[in-house]
From TrEMBL:
It comes from the Eukaryota. InterPro entries: AH/BAR_dom_sf. This is Sorting nexin/Vps5-like C-terminal domain-containing protein.
Length: 68
């Protein structure tokens, strides 16, 4: 019975260590995915901001033409 207990304890420790490694790998993957999403969001916001600037410049130019 003592031998079974020791074997079970060793198996539990091995499984626990493997689970810790898997959790760490998962954390690394999640951070990488979050970083990628954040970069994509920033790039998209930058693109939209550039478009808005272009629209506003066009509107200002049109207003200047109308007032001239």
């Amino acid at each position: 019975a003592e031998l079974d207990k020791q074997n079970a304890s060793k198996e539990y420790e091995a499984i626990s260590e493997k689970a810790k490694q898997e959790l760490e790998e998962y954390k690394v993957r999640r951070v990488a995915a979050f970083k990628k999403s954040l970069v994509e969001l920033a790039e998209l916001q930058h693109k939209h901001a550039k478009t808005q600037v272009h629209v506003l410049k066009s509107a200002i130019a049109s207003l200047k033409e109308m007032s001239a």
